[in-house]
Amino acid sequence: MNTLLHINTSLFASEGQSSALAARYVERWRRNHPEGRVIERNLSEQPVAHLDAERFGAFLADEAKLTPLQRQALDESNTFIDELRAADTVVIGLPMYNFGIPSMFKAWIDHVARPGVTFRYTENGPVGLLADRKVMVFAARGGVYQGTPMDTQTDYVTHVLNFIGLHDIEFVYAEGLALGDDRQRQALAKAHSTIDALAA
Ligand SMILES: Cc1cc2nc3c(=O)[nH]c(=O)nc-3n(C[C@H](O)[C@H](O)[C@H](O)COP(=O)(O)O)c2cc1C
Questions:
Q1: 98 lines ligand 1 (CB under 6 A)
Q2: pTM for this structure?
Q3: Strand 3-8's sheet: what is its strand order?
Q4: Domains plus CATH for the chain?
Q5: Which of 96, 98, 181 is the pocket-test mutation for ligand 1 (most atoms within 8 Å of CB)?
Q6: What's the pLDDT at 2?
Q7: Distance 142 CA to ligand 1 centre (A)
């Protein structure tokens, strides 16, 4: 069965502009895959705690010796990784906040990048342990940064997904959303037509 993992990282949950772009793709995917399954992971409705030493310890410790908080951290991490493993397609709604990715998305990444589970180090460097699958990233931004050093998201997200084994990554951008109604309309229209073409 085709399975799509739909991750929203906007602090506005499904009301976010990045969420709306991701939802547009997911809606079209559902139409094309009536038997398909969609796993919803909405990070502002189901917040992930930031990683601290105790939580990180859960990834290295003997499972029999975990504190209750470590048990919770490990269960959360296992759930996120299982969701990734189950999906043939991963869709991420990605706003830019304060020149970076949303902190809740970083917290999710910190629970997914697990030594010995999603990556390992070898003599030749790190190796991602997840099987590759399609990742679509819908990036919404108030300003315009694509192709400049100010775009801190594209390289980082690509690198961290590559690190865990995901290489087939496509970005769709809606930029300049804070630059007036005309710019916003144009950016959204362009993103919508790209999404519709990708989903066709
Ligand atoms: C807290 C916050 C910080 C933001 N920081 C930036 C920024 O650094 N650069 C930028 O281009 N836009 C910034 N924006 C604008 C958002 O990127 C833009 O509104 C985007 O569409 C938000 O996506 P969302 O509605 O899915 O959350 C910021 C918005 C918020 C709410």
A1: yes
A2: 0.97
A3: 37-42, 3-8, 89-95, 134-140, 169-174
A4: 3-199 (3.40.50.360)
A5: 96
A6: 95
A7: 5
